[in-house]
What we know:
The protein is α+β, with helices and mostly antiparallel strands. Helices cover 26% and strands 38% of the residues. It contains 9 helices and 26 strands. Strands 14, 15, 16, 17, 18, 19, 20 and 21 form an 8-stranded antiparallel sheet that branches. Strands 1-6-2-3-10-11 form a 6-stranded mixed sheet. A hairpin with a 4-residue loop joins strand 19 (275-279) and strand 20. Helix 3 packs across helix 4 (139-150). The chain is globular, with a radius of gyration of 20 Å.
Amino acid sequence: xxFITSISHLISPExxxxxxxxxxxxxxxxxxxxxxxxxxxADDLKAAxxxxxxxxxxxxxxxxxxxxxxxxxHFGTVIGLMAIYDDSPSVFxxxxxxxxxxxxxxxxxxxxxxxxxxxxxxxxxxxxFILCHPTPGIEEQVVAAIDDYFQSPVPxxxxxxxxxxxxxxxxxxxxxxxxxxxxxxxxxxxETKCTHSFSAGYTETEFAGTVTKACGRNLIxxxxxxxxxxxxxxxxxxxQVNVPIHFEFDLVTQYSLGRKVGEVFNxxxxxxxxxxxxxxxxGAILLFTEIDEGDTVxxxxxxxxxxxxxxxxxxxxxxxxxxxxxxxxxxxxxxCAGPMLYLKDDxxxxxxxxxxxxxxTPFLSPFTFGEQGRxxxxxxxxxxxxxxxxxxxx
Length: 394
């Protein structure tokens, strides 16, 4: 397999796709992965791609404000493209599901997988890896449907479609269809080794409580008290910082809420939930994830320097302690938009750490409103403020 990335800041979808194509070899790629900011119409981009890359499997997802790649850090009106070349037949398949108001998310996800496997003539075969991009609000249902469909822990790396200001201006598309609510997936059937990771990188604090009232993504009470009051008190006692009732973005990014998933070598690992804002009259907190009554939530502390180096550490961990024997071909890293917005100009340092960790290797990273992956213990989950990655290597 061979991977090549290309970048365009041209505003016209037609001219941008032409520019992206001009940075690639003349032969047609085997598949394409695209991330683009909300400045582009998904319908117009799809039309340009199908004209210039006819019959090529493609998945595309909107990203928050920009992308990072081996070629640099790119903000503004931008499209990032990864082209994959593989001479083996039936290696890549796309699955896309548009979910309307009256449609069942799990059923639509499974139908999309059915259609993809039939098209690939791979019915009954497990993919070696799935890249998955749902829209916000349906992620838990999507990952549960994937697990239920395959009945096996298929590696999955994913990220929720995003926009610049959490205004619902996200979208996604494949070579077949565009959608503003749904999921798009690429199924990989490759012999090239792919190591995946799902990492939080936050430290648990001494503050924890039980969810005593919740509804969907609204965390209403912790230990019988209004959730936002408990959350603000925890931060004040832990960090000696007074949190206003209307949360400041930097604080809620640095201090997330974690739920323990499992342990490795007596070390707990967590899935994180990012508070968005106070919700309703009950002092509830609206999250980017679902929350259940009876869950134990822990205040988590995200160190700024740790956020900067964490994606690079994720890549290094793939070497399994044998960096001299590690020869990466490419990487797809899904990075939460929260830390990117929190880090501001330090995101450029994050990209430089990634380049040092992976070497002269093509990689592409969007900024998403939620991350999906499989933990080291095999648990599949949707969470926030995470780094989820797929590193292809010899």
